[in-house]
Each structure stands twice: as C-alpha cells, then as structure tokens.
Amino acid sequence: MQWNLDQLRQFVAAAEQGSISAAARHLGRAQSAVSTAIALLEVDLGVTLFDRSAHKAGLTEVGAAMLQEAREVLRQADALEERTRSFSAGDEASLTMVLDEALPYAALRVLLRELSARAPALELTLLDGTPSEVVAAVQQRRADIGFHFDRGRVASGFDQRHIGSVAQGIFVSPRHPLAARERLRKTDLAQYRQLILQADGVEEPVYSPKLWRSDNHYSIAEMVADNLGWAILPVNVAEYFDHAKALVPLRCPALALPLLSVQMLWLPGRPLGSTAQWTGERFGQLLSSQGKAVLGEDM
C-alpha cells in the first residue's frame, strides 16, 4: 500500500465538510487535486470510500467505517509529531518527582494543571513521603527531582536550590488549656506535651520535656486535633482539617518561627532538563503566592 497521511487528511476533510469541493476550499487546494488524492487512496486501500452515483458524493458504508480509523491514525500521527517537537526542544520524555507530603497541595494542584498544558507529551510519575523518603527516592534514583523542607543535613550528597517558603505556626486543639490564652511564654508551652516530627536528618526544636514523636506531619496534626498536645506545623497542614477539627493558632512572641525553606533536590552529575527546571521555578512562584495570601490573612 502506498497511501499517506496527506491522503487521509483530504479524505477526512471531504467527509467532514460534506463534499470534495467544500474540502478543497477548506484545505485551500484545487478540487481536482483533492479528488485525485481520494481516488488514489481508494485504489491503495482497495475499497470505495465515496458513492459518486448521486449528484453529491456521500460516504459508503465502508467509507463511514474507515473514517473513524483515519481519524485515529491522524490523531496518533499528530501526537507523535507533537512529542517529537517537544524532545527536539530539549524537554524530557519522562519525569519522576517526589514531594514532602507536608508541602501545600493547593500549589501542587495548580502546578500539575499548568505542567499538563505545557508538556502534554510528558510521562509523569509523582511520589510523596516523609522527609527521609524524599531523600531516599532521589538518592536511589527512583526520582529525578525532589521537593522537601530544608533540614540542613543532606546538602553534601545532593545539588539543591531554594525555590520558596511555607509559613509555620504553633497549633493546639480548641479544647486545649492554652487555646484561650492570648499571649504565651516558652515556659507556658513547656508545661504541656509537644508533638514533634521524627525523621532521619530532621532536628526539630524541643520546648517541652514531655514529647511524642511521629514521622508524619498529618499524623501529628491529627493528634493535635485530638487534644493530645501542641505542635509546630506548616500552616497548610493545620488548615487541612474541616471546621469540626479546626486547630487553633497560638501567639508566643518569644518564639519567632521562621518561614520553612523549600528546597529542590537532585543528584550531582544529572543535569536538569527544561521541564524539570520549569517545574522548580513555577512551584516556587506558586508557593510564594500562597505564602503572601496566608501572611495577608494573618495581618
């Protein structure tokens, strides 16, 4: 068979436009050229696509069936061409990224929508986990890039880039004795159980002699909601709960909490492709926008 994609496009155009002459006008070609292309396609396929016995040629039963096949072939051809252009421009064929589970999901949702539009041919894999699992996934080459809160302990074995920040605060259950206090001192916090993150390479500040630990921010937030203690949490984690479990932020002027730095992490010697670079830059912008919104609400 010697048929080609151009012949298929002219066949589909004639079927969709309702006639060969209309297809010729739509394609900006001579009617004779379109008619010849379709006739050659019929010869190559060994079937009759149009019934020309009437004044206006219409699809035969076989032509109607072949129209669906032709559309699918053209769809695949267009997808192939689009993906090839993407690779020629330096985009990756695939990307696996791992994220700290406590990072703001609202920013991630926007990132993924924009990434889908920017790189429709990309094969994407998303992983999430605890701080230790993020580091391990990149180190073991199960992920190309990782996003995590900067803990200051993994820089020697990885390349890193600061991309943005996330606000944090002190939170308790509405039923906690500290919930009704307007201003607290560190000694007030020390009287009650503190819930802290436990993970390799993570050194959380300790302010109370009474401690419970977990390797998951959301588990800690659940324990706070159940009135088991107080915790320092990323604001987005504390806001995860519905109104019935709303956590109460505490004010402790003596405990000035810095913004949590978010780092992009990858292995040295593995240069970042254009999609990975864009992902890091855009995620940072989205984190910054969300952070300004949170700070604005708190003012």
TrEMBL record:
Keyword annotations = DNA-binding, Transcription, Transcription regulation
Q: Where is the HTH lysR-type domain?
A: 3-60
Q: Which GO terms describe its molecular function?
A: DNA-binding transcription factor activity; transcription cis-regulatory region binding
The keyword Transcription belongs to this UniProt entry's keyword annotation: yes
The protein's superkingdom reads Bacteria
Which CDD domains does the UniProt record give? PBP2_LTTR_substrate
- SUPFAM superfamilies xref list: Periplasmic binding protein-like II, Winged helix' DNA-binding domain
Query: Is Metal-binding given among the entry's keywords?
Result: no
Which PANTHER family has this protein been placed in?
Answer: HTH-TYPE TRANSCRIPTIONAL REGULATOR (PTHR30126), LYSR FAMILY TRANSCRIPTIONAL REGULATOR (PTHR30126:SF91)
The family classification in the record reads: Belongs to the LysR transcriptional regulatory family.
What is the protein name stated in its UniProt record?
LysR family transcriptional regulator
From which organism does this entry originate? Answer: Herbaspirillum aquaticum
